[in-house]
Amino acid sequence: DSGVTQTPKHLITATGQRVTLRCSPRSGDLSVYWYQQSLDQGLQFLIQYYNGEERAKGNILERFSAQQFPDLHSELNLSSLELGDSALYFCASSVVGTSTEAFFGQGTRLTVV
Amino acid sequence: DQQVKQNSPSLSVQEGRISILNCDYTNSMFDYFLWYKKYPAEGPTFLISISSIKDKNEDGRFTVFLNKSAKHLSLHIVPSQPGDSAVYFCAASAAGAQKLVFGQGTRLTINP
User: Fold this and answer.
1) Which pLDDT tens digit goes with each residue over B49-88?
2) A48 closest CB neighbour out of B41, B43, B98
3) Would an 8 Å CB–CB cutoff place B33 in contact with chain A?
4) pLDDT tens-digit profile of B3-48?
5) Residue in A5, A55, A57 with CA at minimum distance from that of residue A30
6) First CA to last CA distance, chain A
7) How far is it, in rounded angstroms, from Cα A66 to Cα A45?
8) Residue A21 to chain B, least CA–CA distance (Å)
9) Do B36 and B45 contact (CB within 8 A), yes or no?
């Protein structure tokens, strides 16, 4: 158990819909990262928050947004969903602002039908 | 633009033998490299890392080698055990960068 909690574990939704993925970091970790893993692909960095503020952005679509709340949990919002958004979405956390040795959650498997 | 590449999608090794997983990178700014292991239905777990100031780091059965001139790193597992069967991801980061850049992963299968 990494200590990073992601909910829900599975999500099936229709094209055009909006979903919210939730992540609770390890106790004491200030940084949260979101990664996307499409079928047979590596993990693609989406976005990072550090202590409530956006710190870095990767290849995140404009239809996607995220935020980190005062209690340090984070949410990833995906809207106008397309079939190609079907993927595993991982959240990771670390104590400091760099992602070295980040701890990953179990992921949310999103299926868009 | 695949900055970190794992060219072998899969590898099969007999139990007790050595497993060697390879990773190549293109960005000369990368100075920290990590290996993560992933079981089905679980998130990646950190395995071992190496800084660019070193060329080798060892932790039990796991050793990572870094060849900066070739922009190549490898993970050696000796001896391989059935529990090592998983997908292994190579990742890299640049100094001050906020993200890890991952390779596509190599599925390692250890045969009894």
Assistant:
1) 999 999 999 999 999 999 999 999 999 999 999 999 999 9
2) B98
3) no
4) 999 999 999 999 999 999 999 999 999 999 999 999 988 899 999 9
5) A55
6) 31
7) 13
8) 15
9) yes
Q: What share of chain A is helix, strand, coil (3-state, %, to 5)?
A: 5, 50, 45
- Chain B nearest CA to A87, separation (Å): 13
Nearest to A55 by CA among B71, B98, B100: B98
Q: Across the strands, what pairs with B106?
A: B88
Reference A66, options A42, A49, A86; nearest CA is: A49
In angstroms, the CA B46 to CA B25 distance is 19
Tokens of A46: 């989406």
Region of A70 please: left (phi>0), alpha (psi -120 to 50) or beta.
alpha
- Residues for chain B: how many in total? 112
Q: Is B93 exposed, middle or buried (0-12, 13-18, 19+ CB in 10 A)?
A: buried
- Cβ distance B50 to B2 under 8 Å? no
